[in-house]
């Protein structure tokens, strides 16, 4: 089953683009995650299939690794095999040196790893990029580091002497290369290049790259290790010509683009033969800033928050030592996690498993787990908050309607992480500093500044966000049995419900999470979110023992449903409309996912059947449009919809449409959730955490 699907995906890509000659498991996506651990190490993706080459795939050594925005973050991989030099990552140009490109043979993508095999000079070089996903270990998940393991094995039966080299450039430090970098190299059991901007701007970004903090680029020191810093062509040329580095350090601190300083490590792996085990070298890369987040708290003051790993590691270097030593165990945990996700998702389909594998690092790469300091400078270990960046669309902090689409990933991997994320929004709104009666859209306009919206002028999505907070609060409690937030924030939750009671049967002219589609009155899908939200509060009151309020809200829902069906059902076709009284319109009523998730049974089965049959006859090549206003759609909403359709053929059509979109080579960015159903082109957005919604099918049937 699995192998067949591999062959099919290789065939379909090969027929599309003769340039793609490697085997891809599960498929060749638009971009491949390399080191993706935080919004500022959410980063290096290659294989931008689109990249001006009309679907021609880019191997690991066919382009530069880049930040999710597309900005180059040079990461160079070289090998020196029997006296000849090769590139296996990046596209360095070094005149006067003789080298050739290794040939990419395969790429495998799992939930935590991207594994490339390239061949050169009778040797297979395997580059394994492991970005750990550790949902239940807050220290490990919050340590913003990623592994690169490079191994070499003979592939022709012969013996070969092999050295490998990897460098990074200062481009990892800023969204603009005009800034001056400084660096220092520490040599010990582990050699580390630490690189940062000379003038640090706390909590600032340029083009989404942090303007403060340091990159730490490390490897173990062994007898075969050499090291060097200096101008790109000098350092790379040294290795290309000699297979070893000069152990020299150029400390002429300068602009990132001024004679491009690079920071290199090399390992002599000795001789590999058909009889020897593969020889390998391990590297780690991370980006640390402290404080990580600025958060508005009671009394309108700003609190600095630090990444949670500080509660365990006194220094970054102690963290690197522990992270480095943990590689074997981390790999075993990663393999177990990958296998579980794959087994669960494969019960739906291999295409679904591929989509899920490609989505998981993207969500974890958008969050940070933090803690605060106490009056004595120590950490409040029990004060845990998770912050999420609304990557790509606007950089807001903890946007309720971005947390909501991503929510299935949290329910599946660890709902408590979701609670720590929700608590950011609850705590701020419980201070009373936020003036609106509906839920805030987000807790800060620019990550990592979670400074609130005391003026109430955040992007208003009143029904949307009230509904989202209720959906998330109840489904967390149902999944875990922990009602503490329901109790603590009961009055806020009830306040938002009052808003829904007023405004969700006949929703006023407003935007939904799909703000790009424009504002509209009487949106059917918003009414569903609101009515299901009221139903959620009825359940919350029940859990809290407030039987009278629970019964009252249940009655309100019961009285709303037939009125809603009357307003929202088209008179001309068997479907719900996009907006009341517009019989020819329709859209994805993805918010029905909440009714199923929370098992509220507000809407009856015949409604689900009607919608399913309608979508079955409205597929374009890449899926069902979001609504009748445009031909574009959203991948997350398609898979939310797929989670509740009553026909598995239709469910699988949604899944395959999304898989085709992300693997057809029509665009070359990290997983986009917004694209055209006819052309398969990206409409906007990329690398957003909303792809956590692709896990919707994993959380309904448990
Ligand atoms: C470069 O490689 C070519 C072909 O292998 C060889 O003829 C030439 O001598 C090499 N030049 C240098 C400077 O190593
Ligand atoms: C890649 O995946 C294929 C198919 O599952 C498997 O046979 C192969 O061993 C994998 N390669 C690596 C390097 O993990
Ligand atoms: C919204 O729908 C209700 C019920 O059909 C209708 O009375 C009202 O005029 C509609 N509002 C707008 C702005 O279309
Ligand atoms: C039910 O809730 C609505 C909305 O909050 C309120 O106006 C009404 O008085 C409540 N009814 C009862 C019987 O509590
Ligand atoms: C169930 O849904 C159908 C179709 O929307 C509707 O005709 C019927 O009244 C609904 N029944 C109930 C009990 O809501
Ligand atoms: C399920 O959907 C497919 C595709 O539209 C259709 O051919 C099939 O008849 C449907 N099955 C049922 C039981 O409705």
Automatic annotation (TrEMBL):
Residues 349-698 form the Glutaminase A central domain. Residues 1-19 form the signal peptide. InterPro entries: Glutaminase_GtaA, GtaA_central, GtaA_N. Residues 112-344 form the Glutaminase A N-terminal domain. Keywords: Signal. This is DUF1793-domain-containing protein.
């Amino acid at each position: 089953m699995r192998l067949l699907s591999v062959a099919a995906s290789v065939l379909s890509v090969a027929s599309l683009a003769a340039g793609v000659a490697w085997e891809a498991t599960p498929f060749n996506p638009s971009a491949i995650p390399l080191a993706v651990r935080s919004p500022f190490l959410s980063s290096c993706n290659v294989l931008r299939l689109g990249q001006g080459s009309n679907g021609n795939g880019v191997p690991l050594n066919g382009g530069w690794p880049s930040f999710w925005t597309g900005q180059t973050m040079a990461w160079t991989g070289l090998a020196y095999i029997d006296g000849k030099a090769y590139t296996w990552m990046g596209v360095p140009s070094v005149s006067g040196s003789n080298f050739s490109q290794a040939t990419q043979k395969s790429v495998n993508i799992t939930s935590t790893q991207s594994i490339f095999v390239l061949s050169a000079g009778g040797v297979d070089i395997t580059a394994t990029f492991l970005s750990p996903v550790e949902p239940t270990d807050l220290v490990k998940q919050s340590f913003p580091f990623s592994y690169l393991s490079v191994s070499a094995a003979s592939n022709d039966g012969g013996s070969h002497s092999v050295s490998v080299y990897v460098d990074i450039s200062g481009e990892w430090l800023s969204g603009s290369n005009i800034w001056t970098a400084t660096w220092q190299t520490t040599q010990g059991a582990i050699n580390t290049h630490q690189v940062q901007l000379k003038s640090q701007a706390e909590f600032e970004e340029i083009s989404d790259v942090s303007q403060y903090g340091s990159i730490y680029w490390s490897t173990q020191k062994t007898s075969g290790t050499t090291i060097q810093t200096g101008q790109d062509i000098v350092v790379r040329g040294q290795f290309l010509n000699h297979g070893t580095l000069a152990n020299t350090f150029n400390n002429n601190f300068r602009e990132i683009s001024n004679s491009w300083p690079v920071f290199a490590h090399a390992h002599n792996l000795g001789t590999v033969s058909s009889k020897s085990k593969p020889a390998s070298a391990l590297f780690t890369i991370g980006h640390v800033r402290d404080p990580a987040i600025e958060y508005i708290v009671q009394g309108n003051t700003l609190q600095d928050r630090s990444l949670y790993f500080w509660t365990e590691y006194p220094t970054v270097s102690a963290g690197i030592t522990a992270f480095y030593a943990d590689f074997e165990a981390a790999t075993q945990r990663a393999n177990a996690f990958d296998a579980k996700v794959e087994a669960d998702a494969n019960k739906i389909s291999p295409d679904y498993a591929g989509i899920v594998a490609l989505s998981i690092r993207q969500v974890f790469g958008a969050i940070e787990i933090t803690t605060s300091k106490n009056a004595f400078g120590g950490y409040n270990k029990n004060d845990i908050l998770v912050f999420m960046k609304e990557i790509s669309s606007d950089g807001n902090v903890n946007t309720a309607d971005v947390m909501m689409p991503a929510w299935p990933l949290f329910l599946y991997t660890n709902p408590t992480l979701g609670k720590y994320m929700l608590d950011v929004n609850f705590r701020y709104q419980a201070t009373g500093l936020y003036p609106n009666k509906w839920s805030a859209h987000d807790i800060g306009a620019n990550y990592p500044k979670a400074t609130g919206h005391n003026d109430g002028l955040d992007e208003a999505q009143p029904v949307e966000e009230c509904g989202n907070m209720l959906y998330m609060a109840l489904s967390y409690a149902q999944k875990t049995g922990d009602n503490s937030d329901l109790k603590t924030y009961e009055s806020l939750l009830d306040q938002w419900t009052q808003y829904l009671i007023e405004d969700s049967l006949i929703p006023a002219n407003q935007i939904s999470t799909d703000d790009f589609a424009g504002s509209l009155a009487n949106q059917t899908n918003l009414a569903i979110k609101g009515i299901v939200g009221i139903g959620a509060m009825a359940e919350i009151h029940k859990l809290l023992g407030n039987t009278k309020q629970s019964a009252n809200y249940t009655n309100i829902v019961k009285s709303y449903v037939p009125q809603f069906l009357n307003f929202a059902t088209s008179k001309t076709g068997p479907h719900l409309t996009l907006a009341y009284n517009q019989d020819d319109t329709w859209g994805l009523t993805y918010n029905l996912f909440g009714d199923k998730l929370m098992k509220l049974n507000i809407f009856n089965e015949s409604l689900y059947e009607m919608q399913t049959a309608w979508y079955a006859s409205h597929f374009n090549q890449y899926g069902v449009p979001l609504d009748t206003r445009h031909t574009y759609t959203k991948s997350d909403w398609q898979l939310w919809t797929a989670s509740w359709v009553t026909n598995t053929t239709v469910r699988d059509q949604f899944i395959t449409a999304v898989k085709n979109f992300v693997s057809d080579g029509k665009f070359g960015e990290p997983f986009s959730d917004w694209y055209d159903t006819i052309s398969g082109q990206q409409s906007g957005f990329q690398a957003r955490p909303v792809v956590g919604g692709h896990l919707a099918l994993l959380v309904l049937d448990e």
